[in-house]
């Protein structure tokens, strides 16, 4: 631990020289020996590698097996069609993921930073990758810290380490030895770390760790140990594949046994069973899921979110916990003056532009003139902030108050010093010296002898001081950073020791890193949607609590704990308390990962947002990681599933809404395809049970599955309905998609479709011929499934409650699918290929009537259920009133 070791000992240990630095030759040797000062990036996958990963889905593997079996039994056309669908699905998914990776690459900075390094006794600029351990580096305001280092000497040094520690306020640094060995990373004042930015002052430091050995590198190493989790939809799709596969095998075995018992040849029954197994699997399901997710990705990209992994869209829809970094995500990552205290009264920020009091104007002038920061604009009109975030906030205060800086030149100054905790600027006007001072309230008040009261100056008594201190304590208790302001006018320039004595106290400013304006509404929307928002930050507990309460994250009875308190909890204890803890303060990267794991272990779907290097391991571990596109580091972006181009927390909520729509529509498509396939299975199973001839040939089943079913399923996948998805609770991670209610409904609908198809087949065979019976069965199966789409679209309410004509895509898809089925019967060439027969007008009426049975039956069930619920609610009201 270098913060525990004296500087001269470190220099000796690292064989360096404080004045001359390393020699160029030695630096070259170390670079060759230890490697460049860069972070190891994950190898970018080629399009072909991404394409191959698409075949890991269980349902896809089942389809590939089905294709192989089809080839084996001589049904090459069936096999080719299955392979075509599977390949098309993989190509669409691969294209989306590869394009997202390209967009991510475009977000990365192209420039290479340089550091000022002592080499061979002179200062030269060296690219960051060529910095080595033992280098003596000089850094000043605005410079990036090139690598981890121990400070040799510094002057008024402040460093922004928010990217690594998550703390929003710049940290005061010094070179003093730290005796305590158990010091958190954020409190190691004599160290600087790679990715930090010098916001004030200057320093010289010796590099103690670079590249993957730096603190950022340790975080990057953690990424390689974190396994990516399967998304809920991927798990459910695998689950469906397994259930369907087992169900198909059981039914195929039954059909084989029953057919053999009825006297059919074993080979014929084997081929029939295999044909049914191939037809029973919903070949269109993977493609429908892929296309629906792809449409969701396109919508999100237009709204400011780049989705890197396709299944991430629906994962957000299932999320019931969002763990969010505070700095830059929930807050703006810039300090802002929220209140000003003058002449015994508190002024809120909405009064700043209109306040014309002399005392207020005097305080703002001091804040403006006793300041080394500035706000400029580049050639594109984009705001460029120069200097410490606290001082920039004071420049903004002046601008909001309509006060601009005069062109007067500063006579002299006493820079901010961590021991004095003050800064003073001296101006000379009309032969007098005006001294402006700002600093820590407890120190500055002791330097004051008078105070400004309205337009008068009064002597500062001990009682007055107590009153001011009480105000400071009250503001500090609400997590505000409080600064005090004073001035004096003298005829002669005092000595340096006298500049900050006998001052006139003017007032206080209270500032904080403010929440983003839109975040409060987004968090309220999350609450309505059953989503718990959790703040995880490197800031102090008091600051975190105040922000969390303002945003509505920390409610009455909920807990806020620190990283040290978290360390004392076992995994079991954390799991027991995790639901009641809403804020984690002063945490490390390991803590963030542990928090995410604890939520996952208690059956939650976790989304994690963040922008810093310190967020990256948790982003990778979470069910979905959302990195910030503007302020986010490359490490965070590479670890994420989705990148928010606008760094807006509300975009996450928008993505949740989109994800829920996607998941709801995919479930509709699953419902439709599975119930239709059950209808096909039941048709053949019942026919075998009753010793009927086969009602449908394999080519009929494949045509229905790949052509007639797929278009309506896809149309259901892009359905827009009136239901507000953000007023419903998210589906539980452990919830089986085949819930009791879902399973009963799907089985009932499948049986009904199978029954009407078999009735049509029986009628055609009995009164006409086997060919006409199969024609009836083929048409009724196709058309009944198309009418069934309206049942699926309105799962609980009547189809007339949400206009069936509203989904134009579904209407067009049904018309096209119906025509594809009807053309097979009407066009002689196709009719011969499918072994069907033409039908007269009366026969078409019969087909249409039977095809409507599933739709009408479902409407009757929904009507009866609605009346039952209504009667029950009336009965309950009667009982309550009694």
From TrEMBL:
Select a single GO molecular function from the record's annotations and give it: ATP hydrolysis activity
Q: Where are the transmembrane segments?
A: 79-98, 243-262, 274-300, 669-690, 696-716, 737-763, 775-792, 812-834, 846-864
Task: Give the main localization category.
Answer: membrane
What is this enzyme's EC?
Answer: 7.2.2.10
GO BP terms: namely:
intracellular potassium ion homeostasis; intracellular sodium ion homeostasis; potassium ion import across plasma membrane; proton transmembrane transport; sodium ion export across plasma membrane
Q: What InterPro entries does this protein's entry cite?
A: ATPase_P-typ_cation-transptr_C, ATPase_P-typ_cation-transptr_N, ATPase_P-typ_cyto_dom_N, ATPase_P-typ_P_site, ATPase_P-typ_TM_dom_sf, ATPase_P-typ_transduc_dom_A_sf, ATPase_P-type_domA, Cation_transp_ATPase_P-type
Domain Cation-transporting P-type ATPase N-terminal per the UniProt entry, residue ranges: 1-75
What SMART domains does its record include?
Cation_ATPase_N
State any GO CC term. Answer: plasma membrane
UniProt-annotated location(s): Cell membrane
Q: Which family does it belong to?
A: Belongs to the cation transport ATPase (P-type) (TC 3.A.3) family. Type IIA subfamily.
The protein's name in its UniProt record: P-type Ca(2+) transporter
């Amino acid at each position: 631990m270098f913060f525990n070791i004296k500087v001269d000992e470190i220099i000796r240990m690292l064989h360096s020289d404080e004045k001359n630095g390393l020699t160029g030759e030695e630096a070259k040797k170390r670079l060759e020996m230890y490697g460049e000062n860069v972070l190891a990036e994950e190898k970018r996958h080629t399009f072909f590698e991404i394409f191959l990963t698409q075949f890991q889905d269980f349902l896809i593997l089942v389809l590939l097996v089905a294709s192989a079996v089809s080839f084996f039994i001589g049904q090459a056309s069936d096999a080719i069609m299955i392979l075509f669908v599977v390949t098309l699905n993989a190509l669409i998914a691969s294209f989306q993921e590869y394009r997202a990776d390209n967009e991510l690459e475009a977000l990365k900075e192209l420039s290479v930073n340089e550091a000022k390094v002592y080499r061979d006794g002179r200062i030269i600029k060296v690219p960051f990758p060529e910095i080595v351990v033992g280098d003596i580096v000089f850094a000043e305001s605005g410079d990036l810290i090139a690598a981890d280092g121990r400070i040799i000497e510094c002057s008024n040094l402040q460093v922004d380490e928010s990217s690594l520690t998550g703390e929003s306020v710049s940290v005061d640094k010094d070179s003093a030895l730290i005796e305590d060995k158990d010091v958190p990373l954020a409190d190691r004042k004599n160290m600087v770390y790679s990715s930090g930015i010098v916001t004030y002052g200057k320093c010289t430091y010796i590099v103690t760790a670079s590249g993957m050995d730096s603190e950022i590198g340790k975080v990057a190493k953690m990424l390689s140990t974190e396994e990516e989790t399967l998304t809920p939809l991927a798990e459910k799709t695998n689950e469906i594949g397994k259930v369907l596969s087992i169900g198909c095998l059981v039914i195929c075995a039954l059909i084989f046994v029953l057919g053999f018992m009825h006297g059919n040849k074993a080979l014929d029954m084997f081929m029939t069973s295999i044909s049914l197994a191939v037809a029973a699997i919903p070949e269109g399901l993977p493609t429908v899921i892929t296309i629906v997710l792809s449409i969701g990705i396109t919508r999100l990209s237009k709204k400011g979110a780049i989705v890197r992994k396709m299944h991430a869209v629906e994962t957000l829809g299932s999320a019931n916990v969002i763990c969010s970094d505070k700095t830059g995500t929930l807050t703006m990552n810039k300090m802002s003056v929220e209140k000003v205290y003058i002449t015994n009264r508190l002024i809120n920020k909405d009064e700043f532009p209109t306040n014309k009091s002399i005392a207020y104007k005097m305080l703002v002038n001091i804040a403006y003139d006793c300041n080394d920061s500035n706000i400029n604009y580049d050639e594109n009109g984009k705001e460029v902030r120069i200097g410490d975030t606290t001082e920039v906030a004071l420049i903004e205060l002046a601008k909001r108050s309509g006060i601009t800086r005069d062109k007067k030149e500063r006579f002299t100054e006493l820079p901010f010093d961590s021991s004095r905790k003050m800064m003073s600027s001296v101006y000379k006007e009309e032969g007098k010296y005006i001294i402006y001072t700002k600093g820590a309230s407890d120190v500055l008040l002791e330097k004051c002898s008078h105070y400004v009261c309205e337009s008068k100056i009064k002597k500062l008594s001990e009682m007055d001081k107590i009153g001011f201190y009480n105000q400071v304590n009250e503001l500090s208790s609400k997590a505000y950073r409080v600064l005090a302001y004073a001035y004096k006018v003298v005829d002669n320039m005092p000595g340096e020791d006298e500049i900050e004595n006998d001052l006139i106290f003017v007032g206080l400013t209270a500032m904080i890193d403010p929440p983003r304006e839109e975040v409060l509404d987004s968090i309220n929307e999350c609450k309505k949607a059953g989503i718990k928002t959790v703040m995880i930050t490197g800031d102090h507990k008091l600051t975190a609590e105040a922000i969390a309460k303002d945003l509505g994250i920390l409610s009455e009875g909920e807990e806020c704990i620190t990283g040290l308190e978290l360390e004392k909890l076992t995994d079991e204890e954390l799991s027991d308390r995790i639901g009641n803890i809403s804020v984690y303060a002063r945490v490390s990267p390991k803590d963030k990962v542990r928090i995410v794991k604890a939520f996952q272990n208690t059956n939650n779907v976790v989304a994690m947002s963040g922008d810093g290097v310190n967020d990256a391991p948790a982003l990778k571990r979470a069910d979905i990681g959302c990195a910030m596109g503007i302020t986010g580091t490359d490490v965070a972006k590479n670890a994420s599933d989705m990148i928010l181009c606008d760094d807006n927390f509300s975009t996450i909520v928008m993505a949740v809404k989109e994800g829920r729509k996607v998941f709801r529509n995919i479930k509709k498509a699953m419902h439709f395809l599975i119930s239709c396939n059950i209808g096909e299975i039941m048709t053949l199973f019942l026919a075998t049970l009753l010793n009927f001839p086969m009602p449908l040939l394999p080519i009929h089943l494949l045509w229905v599955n790949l052509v007639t079913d797929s278009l309506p399923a896809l149309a259901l996948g892009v359905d827009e309905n009136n239901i507000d998805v953000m007023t419903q609770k998210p589906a539980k991670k452990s919830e089986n998609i085949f819930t009791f209610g879902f399973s009963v409904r799907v089985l009932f609908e499948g049986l009904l479709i199978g029954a009407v198809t078999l009735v049509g087949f029986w009628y055609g065979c009995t009164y006409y011929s086997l060919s006409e019976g199969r024609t009836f069965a083929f048409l009724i199966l196709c058309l009944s499934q198309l009418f069934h789409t309206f049942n699926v679209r309105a799962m609980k309410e009547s189809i007339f409650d949400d206009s069936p004509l509203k989904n134009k895509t579904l209407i067009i898809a049904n018309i096209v699918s119906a025509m594809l089925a009807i053309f097979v019967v009407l066009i002689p060439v196709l009719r011969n290929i499918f072994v069907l027969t033409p039908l007269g007008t009366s026969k078409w009426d019969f087909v249409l009537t039977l095809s409507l049975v599933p739709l009408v039956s479902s409407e009757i069930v929904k009507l009866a259920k609605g009346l039952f619920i209504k009667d029950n609610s009336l009965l309950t009201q009667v009982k309550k009133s009694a």
